[in-house]
């Protein structure tokens, strides 16, 4: 059953194109890869080192650079990995427990890019309103709304919120920057899944995206939705980009590392024509190499 479930997960992740390729989901540690439990990754002892590793592509001496940029880039990959782990199964009718004790991160290109996830019957829930084809059992929540609420509570309360607190304890970035990065990655996940041929699943993904990014409240978070109004979208006059393009309202500050040499293509500090030029550059580079899936301008990281 584990082998069959992994095949089903691989197929589901594959439907999210470049985003899924960047953030795979494993049921067992992949051979030959560095795998770090979430609690260890986010520990005070190891987190500063992972911040530094996140910007090694841009500088030979990360310890001399602005730690806020390193923390921001780490958070981008962390959020992408956790978003995939929680929301791709949800699109397939499965709410997964992604609390920190239940997952580990696969380290690729010096950053958390993928997870090893527990999917035993105690860690998942299903719903007759959003039936799953995955070969697993779990508690039946009854309605798809309750299923989504359970998945998002685990994502937000049991993972992102405590992870952000640990990041903030190590680097003086703003909480809004971290929630902006979470919103960015979640939106890009769904944008990569818009061509899913299954109409019911496509509708489920649209409902989940709207609930997360536009709902007044976010399950698992006290008070107003912390991701509300942190992103906007712009329509451009370019046939290669028929859908509105994401724009961040809160800068990720990666540009402050000299080796970065560029703003992100989603950066709200740029003019619309400058962002479009970066999107075109990204699309050209992605055509001949591993596509970039987050907000950064070019390259695999």
Quaternary state reads: single chain
Number of domains: 1
> What helical percentage do the residues reach?
40-55%
Output the strand order for the largest sheet: 1-5-4-2
Annotation, overall tally of beta strands: 9
Topology readout:
Blueprint: H1 2-14, H2 17-22, E1 25-26, E2 34-37, H3 38-41, H4 47-54, H5 67-91, E3 94-96, E4 103-108, E5 111-117, E6 124-126, E7 139-140, H6 144-170, H7 175-192, H8 199-214, E8 231-234, E9 245-248, H9 272-287
Parallel strand pairs: 1-5, 6-7
Antiparallel strand pairs: 2-4, 3-6, 4-5, 8-9
In words, what does this structure look like?
By secondary structure, the chain is α/β, with parallel strands linked by helices. It has one domain: Transferase(Phosphotransferase), domain 1 (Orthogonal Bundle), CATH 1.10.510. Helix content is 44%, strand content 12%. The chain is built from nine helices and nine strands. The protein has helices at 2-14, 17-22, 38-41, 47-54, 67-91, 144-170, 175-192, 199-214, 272-287, and strands spanning 25-26, 34-37, 94-96, 103-108, 111-117, 124-126, 139-140, 231-234, 245-248. The protein has a four-stranded mixed β-sheet with strand order 1-5-4-2. A three-stranded mixed β-sheet has the order 3-6-7. It has a two-stranded antiparallel ribbon with strand order 8-9. The two termini are 34 Å apart. 45% of the residues are buried. Residues 297-301 have low confidence and may be disordered.
